[in-house]
Design a protein that fits this description.
With 122 residues, the chain is an alpha+beta fold. The protein has a single domain, classed as Glutaredoxin (3-Layer(aba) Sandwich), CATH 3.40.30. Strands 2-1-3-4-5 form a five-stranded mixed beta sheet. The longest helix has 16 residues. The chain is globular, with a radius of gyration of 15 Å.
Length: 122
Amino acid sequence: MKSLADLHALRDKLKSDLKLRKESGTKIIIGMGTCGIAAGAREVMAAVLDELARRHLTDVQVQQTGCIGMCDKEVLLDVLRPGEARITYGNVKPEDVSKIIANHVVNGNIVEEMVVGKIENK
């Protein structure tokens, strides 16, 4: 960082990144327990944030959670769209993220071959 302009650019980027985590309709929840991190959850989280930024999807809330007991299926990524079932995707790799976001988050089409859990909306 060499100038005030660089500082302002960094501030704007961080504000944009934080906006992705604020409350909105659609949520993406990533398992960040020890087992998830060991399986690559940090890389998946980075891929999610990058993909949302690339698509300019600022209305999607990104959260993290601890272990939920399906350690053998890590990395776990949940998509919760308003009024729909909560879908848990398992064995998610960074290269799977764009497919999940394009199909499920944007178009509402569940990526069935990656689903390991489903909780109906009540």
